[in-house]
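HUMAN: Forgive my ignorance: could you write out one protein's sequence and backbone structure tokens?

ASSISTANT:
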Amino acid sequence: MLDLGDIQRGVLSPRPSPYAATYILLRLDDRAHGRELMRRIRAVVTSAADTESPLGETWVSVALTVHGLRALGVPAEALETFAWEFRQGMAARAAALGDVGDSGPEHWEAPLGTLDVHVVLVALAPDRARLETAIDRARPAYQRLSGVTAIWRQDCHALPTETEPFGYRDGISHPAVEGSGIPGSNPLEAPLKAGEFVLGYPDELGGVQAPRPEILGRNGTYVAFRKLHQRVAAFRRYLRDNSTGPEDEELLAAKIMGRWRSGAPLALSPSRDEPGLGADRRRNNAFLYEHDDPAGFTTPCGCHIRRGNPRDAAVAGVPRLHRMIRRGTAYGPPLPEGALEDDGAERGLMFAFVGAHLGRQFEFVQSEWMNDGLFFGAGDARDPIVGSGDGPGDFTIPQRPLRRRLRALPRFVVTRGGEYCFMPGLNALSWLGDLDD
């Protein structure tokens, strides 16, 4: 069984709907103050066992970059036991992730991807009032320490419609994790081993991964934070320019995503949108691909949700070994309904990946499934929504008698920055606070 009392709640708990969230980045300029921050924040961070709170579905999480662990004085021999991707950092992995051109680290929003980012605080609540209460609880932990400086903040939100900036219902898919007590969103998917998401437990291959010493690594996990700017007006124009009318435009949007904008999956509603299905959490993710749709005539193999989670499909790599917990939180004002020109506002998603294997989960999915199409026989075709790389792309929709091909797909999503982080267990936070030179 998972030690839920030692795991941060932000690792396993699905987010409430609606919700508001804030990301705050901290720099540690004084080692003693950084350790004091760890001791203080330990009292604020919510555990996965703490599901009953006066504030309801509200919690605070904390994670550290490799630079943050160094700033705290974690010994070099301990740092060497962390995943090598984490030790390199996201900016150094940009080429492998497809963060080139406009998405390259040289264009990232400061201070993302720099040596200054040491600690990431995340607060989440069902509404802005309770979010501010959570932040007020966390603020004394760092604000009164002269050696700890808040260097960046990103406020986020989820609309009551549960949609992201492109207009699709978001936050639908969530895996079941053995021992968590939290059901997954797909009743047809067997729970995954806890070690796929929490360090120190057996994973799907039977191995146990955890940094050393054990008190530091056990019950922690890795998190990839990314700020992704969405070119909403360009996406709308592309749909309009490549469709024959409003109905075809919505079908095209569904084929690109794998779901209608309501959240109804093509796998269960292939010819028309069913908003009731899209809103039904018991049914909107209950489907597989291999038996009913192996060739992608209903849900294209190259669409966004099938690339990100091929489910039972026979593809390169066993899908269960690349399963991730994904969370996206919108930022910026929505583009007014029907607008086809960019208004210059920053909008998009703060994306978070949670998992115990940065390499074979986040980086594999990003490089092999999102930015390439070889795994299902589509050459170098990229994901039509979030695919990254140089130049425009193509997208093929299987249909009879002739397939439909979309050409010159521009990049609709641009990386504004990101960080690889380690989210320690609560006991590890105490250990970090008690480090002694």
Residues 229-417 form one domain. The mean pLDDT is 94.
